[in-house]
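Repro case for the chain-ordering regression, as requested:
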Amino acid sequence: MNEDIESLLEKVRQGTVSIEEASLRLRKAPFVDLGYAKVDTQRSLRQGVPEVIYGAGKTAEQILGITKVLSADSDRPVLITRLDAEKAKSLQEQLPLTYYPDGRIGLVGEFPKPDGIGTILVLSAGTSDRPVAEEAVLTARALGNEVKAFHDVGVAGLHRLLAHLDDMMEATVIIAIAGMEGALASVVGGLVSCPVIAVPTSIGYGAAFGGMTALCSMLNSCASGVSVVNIDNGFGAAYQASLINHVKGDVRK
Amino acid sequence: MNEDIESLLEKVRQGTVSIEEASLRLRKAPFVDLGYAKVDTQRSLRQGVPEVIYGAGKTAEQILGITKVLSADSDRPVLITRLDAEKAKSLQEQLPLTYYPDGRIGLVGEFPKPDGIGTILVLSAGTSDRPVAEEAVLTARALGNEVKAFHDVGVAGLHRLLAHLDDMMEATVIIAIAGMEGALASVVGGLVSCPVIAVPTSIGYGAAFGGMTALCSMLNSCASGVSVVNIDNGFGAAYQASLINHVKGDVRK
Amino acid sequence: MNEDIESLLEKVRQGTVSIEEASLRLRKAPFVDLGYAKVDTQRSLRQGVPEVIYGAGKTAEQILGITKVLSADSDRPVLITRLDAEKAKSLQEQLPLTYYPDGRIGLVGEFPKPDGIGTILVLSAGTSDRPVAEEAVLTARALGNEVKAFHDVGVAGLHRLLAHLDDMMEATVIIAIAGMEGALASVVGGLVSCPVIAVPTSIGYGAAFGGMTALCSMLNSCASGVSVVNIDNGFGAAYQASLINHVKGDVRK
Amino acid sequence: MNEDIESLLEKVRQGTVSIEEASLRLRKAPFVDLGYAKVDTQRSLRQGVPEVIYGAGKTAEQILGITKVLSADSDRPVLITRLDAEKAKSLQEQLPLTYYPDGRIGLVGEFPKPDGIGTILVLSAGTSDRPVAEEAVLTARALGNEVKAFHDVGVAGLHRLLAHLDDMMEATVIIAIAGMEGALASVVGGLVSCPVIAVPTSIGYGAAFGGMTALCSMLNSCASGVSVVNIDNGFGAAYQASLINHVKGDVRK
Amino acid sequence: MNEDIESLLEKVRQGTVSIEEASLRLRKAPFVDLGYAKVDTQRSLRQGVPEVIYGAGKTAEQILGITKVLSADSDRPVLITRLDAEKAKSLQEQLPLTYYPDGRIGLVGEFPKPDGIGTILVLSAGTSDRPVAEEAVLTARALGNEVKAFHDVGVAGLHRLLAHLDDMMEATVIIAIAGMEGALASVVGGLVSCPVIAVPTSIGYGAAFGGMTALCSMLNSCASGVSVVNIDNGFGAAYQASLINHVKGDVRK
Amino acid sequence: MNEDIESLLEKVRQGTVSIEEASLRLRKAPFVDLGYAKVDTQRSLRQGVPEVIYGAGKTAEQILGITKVLSADSDRPVLITRLDAEKAKSLQEQLPLTYYPDGRIGLVGEFPKPDGIGTILVLSAGTSDRPVAEEAVLTARALGNEVKAFHDVGVAGLHRLLAHLDDMMEATVIIAIAGMEGALASVVGGLVSCPVIAVPTSIGYGAAFGGMTALCSMLNSCASGVSVVNIDNGFGAAYQASLINHVKGDVRK
Amino acid sequence: MNEDIESLLEKVRQGTVSIEEASLRLRKAPFVDLGYAKVDTQRSLRQGVPEVIYGAGKTAEQILGITKVLSADSDRPVLITRLDAEKAKSLQEQLPLTYYPDGRIGLVGEFPKPDGIGTILVLSAGTSDRPVAEEAVLTARALGNEVKAFHDVGVAGLHRLLAHLDDMMEATVIIAIAGMEGALASVVGGLVSCPVIAVPTSIGYGAAFGGMTALCSMLNSCASGVSVVNIDNGFGAAYQASLINHVKGDVRK
Amino acid sequence: MNEDIESLLEKVRQGTVSIEEASLRLRKAPFVDLGYAKVDTQRSLRQGVPEVIYGAGKTAEQILGITKVLSADSDRPVLITRLDAEKAKSLQEQLPLTYYPDGRIGLVGEFPKPDGIGTILVLSAGTSDRPVAEEAVLTARALGNEVKAFHDVGVAGLHRLLAHLDDMMEATVIIAIAGMEGALASVVGGLVSCPVIAVPTSIGYGAAFGGMTALCSMLNSCASGVSVVNIDNGFGAAYQASLINHVKGDVRK
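-- result from build under test --
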């Protein structure tokens, strides 16, 4: 951004850009205003990834509008998360959208080729945690990562988890997904030496408090190297894992 | 109690006990009223164990008074929990009390010979959980149990826990003590086939919420066979474990 | 497990098992991977009881698949908890499943003969706590226990509870189920000398907080010998009670 | 108050009170403004009882000032609650104050003769609940009530409570005081047909949450006829009980 | 109860009642066991009021069964609370039940003649608090009380409340019902000298927390003489108010 | 109000108003009692704005009744908030009501001409916060304010917010609306020197706790000059903003 | 800020400021970096008020350093909040600081002449709320406001509050301060037509939850025109009130 | 670990290690048991970093013992966190320990040479967040990272933060530390394209809830690429950041 400012100022000095125009550009950052949303058309430049649309609070019409702006601007895929089947169907009438019901994910375009440092490993504790795991897997793939996933590896059956010890040892980042008491994050965190992103899920009842117990449990992990995202936020974990898997010495160089 | 009622009624019919007296006895259960406390002198009969004095909310004088009544009535040991060093010192001037500072336990009398079915195994996750573990160990011993204990076996270093797998397999009851995320209960519960009593501790900070996270975590254990007592309640866990270790087909026979 | 390791190692030394194979066996514990679930076919060996299927987060198809694997492997019954009527009906088309709607329990196979030490007594406070009580009763029976149950014996009508004092005195373990203020656990705990497993229920409104008040109340029971399971977890209480009712001196001998 | 308005207006019509004066009187209700406090000198008229001084948030100087105004105005006793020993000592140098350390109560003047309908019965569950019970007992006496009290009658030892069944049956109002799980309120409420005022106390640890568990427990009492005051509010319970013990058909007649 | 015991014992001494029988009677208190409920047929004797049926957790069939037992035993009315319209309609086919939809109350029999000391005044803060107010009004009437009620008198329009100052001054007990911030209880409590029973309601949104804010607010009322019942518990407030309005010096005389 | 009292008293002195009548008027403040509601017909005089009807807890019939009373009394518009589409449709059959579905607002009458000091600026963080923003915009307009609004200006895309810096600098009051972490309030509060009214919304999931996180976040804003209203309370923010935008040196002069 | 950008760009075009320099100035906003703090020397320009130092988390040395920078830069007073007596004393050795212990406020310089639109009225409910009220009063004065204050006007003694109705009617902004149930905000909000800033205090015990009950209560005020600041935040309320009392049509003109 | 198992099995086959011995080694992982702690002497091998000692719950003696074992085994530095000044002083008598009081960190040995991919940038919002920031900085350095840090860059003074935009753009990982409303994480997360580890601090009062508000706020960050650690856990953030800064494609290769 700094360089942009300097090049703009250079143009002002040369007189090729007027002061008013420069002032405007400085304040009006590059986005398309649809009224209901300001679509960030240069985000892939600034953050290295395409705009992701959080589908939960938006109508099919709004999602369609945003997707069109984004598609016009770039040939990278557009990822729509928390997309229910009904909206997906309605969107498919106007967009070449592939819908993944297990992870409630829609994708316009193709999954890119993996270009990360290594592999992201997704581990989920129980069968019911699957949707969150799918959201993480699909997001990570859409962001250009090699992904492996194992399900139903909760700590109550430790041997099921340990059966995947090799994959755990080889992973670049691990996403550990669990509801109920969320102990998976601590056990995994204690076994490996790569970063672990823990995702609490809302699975459980009673004193599970909709994922709050798993969340607090993971924040208190007795293993080092574990950080946590919001309840059921498979997308957020994958996004963070992807950033880690693409990490660079000096991002701007 | 039923038999007592019937035998009392038999005496009424025989005229050896008056109606007024019988009515009185039925309502006035056997305790000594010290004003500040009603000491239950027949509890060891009714519940099979000596009265335990919860020392936290009582003055040294009150504890002394209660202990004297209990000692007069029985030759079983008197256990005083949550006893701070100062009160212990003051009590020792008047009572043959042995004080265990690590578990904040005072004992008047000797530890009885173990007479339980098997062994109670106490596992604690971290060095800081030690006081709760000591409370559990001493309580269990005072209640007539064979006890084994291993400390610092939290799940972040799984190999430390698995090193004691044999003892875990052989235990009759296990007390699993952990603060922070309390994952120890789930991992232990998944490995063994005996009852596990989980004790959350107040160890941790931030989102540990003084033990609430460990408590809820343990209540949501994905392993079956785990029940839970209050935060830091090493005594309660040991008491329950001792009942289990002395369990009988028909308690009254 | 230790013995298995030793016998495996013995075979390695004798050369009947290759090193690679042994390594594989050590890490690949015995379960069947269905993709959506890893079914533990040797759990009845390791833990002495059949696999129990938690039906709440699974589709009828998934339950069917898991049940088939388990049935193939053993002739012990398969217990499916939190099974709604619709899924039960769908399963009955393919399985000899008996459905108990009050406790939302499905059973494939017969209830085994009771082989426990004594009797498990289930007490529930109000009419609305019945479903949780049924879950406990059926689970305990499926795990091979003699079970008695009394309903609507909450402490507001103390005489209703005391009418069952004999049964309470004779029980080996008591499961005390109550919503609202959960006082039943404390009163029962004060009367008996066997272990009491308390189950808070979500019955109540306002400051009952969906069972949280009963849960905390039970954790703070002024009676010793009470431990607690999660809200509405009739299954967990029965499982723990059954372990207690089958307790042994040295489980491995 | 209505009558006062009418009589004031009558005087306006007669010209004996000017409009400005009447307006002033209507708005300026009768209290003495000490700057740090507005002392209500006619409250005993309006509410039938003397001003009670809540001592917790006030300096000895402020308490002294308020007491002097109140004493000047009436010969009824002045009750100071939540008064610590140090302030009490300081006040005693200037006032004929009797200090009751157990209930942290100071009294200037004599306890009045009981003039209520019947007896207020104070029941407390444990030895540690004593201070709250004393606050209730002394407050009730200061407000002109016959009071009886029994301590250490918690539900874990039901026979201790039932020993006082006669007194419970004869009471006009019962104040039930308990910490931990607060079950006393429900058991008492189920046994009697008089109003029960429940006082949760902050006694307990862990999931007792400083009295919150007892509070919610009492609010969810399965017995009818129980209402609740704030945690540790022995004064408030006694005040309410005294109003009940002095209840009239038409207060203004 | 004491007298019953003595008279029973007298019969034992005379030989007209056998010991076994007496023992049975002592333990088997007078209720009819319907399996799903133990109906307390002598409660009106013991507590002076008819059994009230809490309709929320019961099927129409269960309510019908309980009502029949109660009606057979007494000619006092039977009150069914939290009764939805559908169940009411189904009950009306078999019972002479009058249904009050505003308060979700069903009544079998007639409202009794008021026989209390004075009048119960019900005040509710907003239009949306009406159902809780109706539950209180109808309950109080069913329990034999003179009742007055004013609605929409919340403290934001103080003049609306003060318009009823005369009625407030003359009441024997006041029930103050409010959601949101529940300030009505404090303002009313400061104006009157009779007991105030406060009922928080679940009306409000956001930080109202389903009535928890109003509940805590009322428990912290800066006015003395206020006690509180559970959220939306109009029945409980009326029950307590009725006990107060029928209070006696010595209940047993 | 003071002046009214004096003028009323003057009339009493002159004999043009009787004492009884004056007493009545003093206590019976000016409202029309519809039974289910007391409609405040002079509120626009006392508070300078028309009565606003909170539609959420009221039936269409009740809203209709209240609107009629208010319309009869004044020619200022009547604002109905939290009005769902169905009730709006039903009301439109009997009233000239304009319905704004985005903000769930109904308006009877015209928006008044803005007569405030300056402009109210409404900023909302995300597309999903729009309904709350609309409620604020429409309320502010109905109360006579010039309003500007920008949506989707959350802090994750700082440039979108800074694009409106000029409008922020020129505003008289700013309403900052955000769910999730509610950071918008702090960033805006740090940039401007006018009062900021923050509105947390219930948008978000997991640890957003239905708006509680945004609420607490805004209350802890590290920027000065921010005050907060209840979750989703766009109306309340606009009402407060309008009061500020119409603020006067001495309201009564 | 916009104008600054334009004038800076103008200088770039004229060549009097180099591009590098301009870029630097744009990013390096005007503050002095002390290492432990970045002191904002131009904040009084940007926000119209002097820097206020929050004293709670800072050492006396740090406060001294910041004050010196601020004093060097401006002749407006420096306000230090949450300043304990000890630090104040230490600061007074090096600075001409006036310390107000009741409000824990230090002031370097003189209170400015009031230049606001009208008067800020501070109302506090109880004697214990005084420190928060003092913080508000002193802050408001330091920010150039005419301030009035009345203490001990809680709603339990409504006449004490109504005695100040005239002042309430004439105020430009009201700050309503209350702990416990916080009802003062609702009652005041219902009486006046100026903005009310509510300050919950941590006064109270038990279910007061350290001010949380008052906070939620105020957020749910049934009166419109009330907004809320953090618990005990007298400073924040006064800051907001001062902004309101100095509000302008277009801040930048 | 797999390779270890294979090589051990190889030795078994060759007969150089007995079966019993092999079984033992498999179960007894490499740690030194001090009784109060099991010190993990091979952790630096397994996890690539030295053992870190959490000092908070340990006595100086225990810390000394653990440090000695660790130092004997390796020449990498030993890091002791949450070490108070008193214990540090006591340790320095026996160990060459350097103590950093600001971050409560003790270091035995030298900071290693940075060997990470790039730079870790530590940003803290307020002066009071400094201790947590220091813990993060020192931990990151001890784990072999290049570290930069800027303090007092909270979002209320956006220009202070933006002054460091270049450093933010160039960082490999950013640690964002803030208390109160924790908005720093969202603003930073929206500006950069590297992973952000957010650390909530316990700084704040009232509705800050000891850091809970900042924690939840950060978990709900509207910016992607933010994960969170426990309150005040500067160590945990630095540990995770260091793992990211040393991330590898296949950790085991």
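Ordering looks correct now. The interface with chain H takes residues 2, 5-6, 9-10, 12-13, 15, 19-20, 22-23, 26-27 of chain C (CB under 8 Å).
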